[in-house]
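Appendix B: complex inputs.
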Amino acid sequence: MRRTGVFICWCGSNIAATVDIDLAVAAAKKMPGVVFADQNKYTCSEIGQEMIREAIRTHRLERVVVAACSPRMHENTFRKTVAAAGLNPYFLEIANIREQCSWVHKDKETATDKAIALIRTAVAKAARNEALFASELPIERRALVIGGGIAGIQAALDIAENGFVVDLVEKEPSIGGRMAQLDKTFPTLDCSACILTPKMVEVAQSEKITIFSYAEVEKVEGYVGNFTVTVRSRARSVDMGKCTGCGDCMLKCPVKVDSEFDLGLIKRRAIYTPFPQAVPNKPAIDRENCRWFTAGKCRVCEKVCPAGAIDYSQEDELRTEKYGAIVVATGFDPKKLDNYGEYAYGKHPDVLTSLEFERLLNASGPTGGKILRPSNGRPPKNVAFIQCVGSRDKAKGNPYCAKVCCMYTAKHAILLCEKVPGARPFVFYIDVRTPGKDYEEFYNRAYEEFGATYIKGNVSKVFPDGEKLLVRSVDALSGALVELEVDMVVLANSVDARAGAKELAQKLSITTNAYNFFNEAHPKLRPVETHTAGIFLAGTCQGPKDIPETVAQASAAAVKVAALLGKDSLLSNPTVAEVNEKLCTGDMSCLAVCPYGAISEKMLEERRGRETVRRKVAEVNMALCQGCGACTVACRPGAINLKGFTNEQIMAEVEAICL
Amino acid sequence: MPVTREGFEPLIVAFCCNWCSYAGADLAGTSRQTYPSNVRVIRVPCSGRVNPGFIIRAFQRGADGVLVAGCHPGDCHYHSGNYHARRRFTILKQMLDYLGIEPERFQVRWISGSEGAKFSAVMNELTENVRKLGPNRKLRDAR
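Resulting structure:
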């Protein structure tokens, strides 16, 4: 038996309110091998950790069990604690009596019983824990940033600033993302392009950063410090080396399709750059719409290109590169309004989403920055802004708040008044939410200085009424029915996760929440890391946020990347598979199930009596093995085992948990 | 655990993969989604790590129900572990049935790290179903 110490945590009242700690300590003292058991209000505090170190020394403990929160929370903390007292860090076991006991059960008696069973299980496993040693792995000093919006741009710039090489992958033909579509930004009314485009240019000019535009991540393999990523650069049909970006091709192309950048408010050509300040400012041919690719005739762009840069024969290019760290910054999609027929979106041209309205405001937008009704090209007088369309709507939208709509609507109201003299904004809201520096003051300006009318009420319906639109709502403060005749309706549609976020999460082995936003490792303390080491998050792919928060998170992610890439080497995960060569029969069923190609054949030479015989056995490459344990189940002679989760350990847990 | 039907409280052993289902169980805790204390979790790196022997041993040692929970198909942290698990446990389920263990006692579920509510719902459902079946007498060691 190993001399085991058990440390039971109150976690303030989080555990102690539901688990009878005294009873648990008394029960722990009777468990096999336990020579010491005690309790602490906060075991993770310095005092709590010192108690463990002290007990290891005075009671000559060989194994330590901490009964506290989830191992996903503090396993590393306590591994360091026991290591500081001279034990192998893998001599520690955690009994999860908070997340999986005190927080999910109400009855103190049965919760205490269960806590004791979990502690007994951890003690049984700990007795079979063996010393494990991490080996050092090299780090690939190159970072990959996925997504070229403001989050990806900021992260790439900051990583490059720290001296590391960055590849920036962007799906569209240009970097810039959503921020490039905006006109002004709250609360300062800075011109979005004026603050974004210099950063885009900085990215393009940085010697450390390579932009892969019109490209997507195809495959991700490997692990922290050693990811192998395949990027598919879509055939642009334009030779980037020859193209000068003169734009003649875009003027002459006969095909017109809805511009994605301008949300279909105007047309673009089949050969196009998304917007005038694009980086790289070189067009791509959209093959789905190009007449040469769809009908086999045209080639006008080829004829007019003075540089001879058009190349219809280009093919998608797959490029595989190694990276030490990855930043995911794929952004968001504005919510599609298919479910909101009551607001007449798509039925009346003067009902717009807020991003469409943003394009009307923008000097490079479809109206050259004039606010004009799409129906008749005249400026609107009364404009209704409807908040929370698809947000805070459990019935058919997102239950969460999209965070930015209150502020950009205040901005829209102000800009409307500035651009159209005599225009009146009416804002229908549930609550106005303006936490943020100078935000409340900005919202105050919208109604104090510019006279925006705020009406607390959920709009029930928008009726097209000849040239006008009729907005029906209730003024929740007075209880009166409101019917308002307006010229334009702007819907503040919610923020959705980017389409394809789930598939990307699968490629990266990271998790998403129920709405497909990527999960951070800890909502408060590890907001830019994911549960997969070496992969970090920046911007709205993690959840709705505004530009300042996005930039802050991107810089934070960049610091994490720089800290990782700045290390000399990484410690490998020592919980890997191990072959007992004596038992191995060489039938290699382990090899067939290993997803990492970590198992290979090895020939052994052995003396048998007077003879030397050669025998085939399996061998595990410790750098490649990720510790899934699939091989252990496939192995017929039981020769391969997973360190840290051995057959013996798990069997001991089963026995103890069933007692 | 009492072996009589009266006031019978089943013992459920749940093997949860570290990346999805164990995280889902933690999330159930963080969001206080309660479930019966009959359920006890053993953490494994992957549902593909769960040896059928562990499950049989649990039934022998008195578990009334066993759950293996892993990442959703396609979401495995190790690419393919849950596919191995799915095939393996489809067969095990038939074998347990043959041995006289009601199929409801052994369940395989996919619970992601964001499905705390699902974890809790599965635990409630499994406990209720096994409670109705009564104690596992078939494989339990005579003790």
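Chain B touches chain A through 52 residues (CB under 8 Å).
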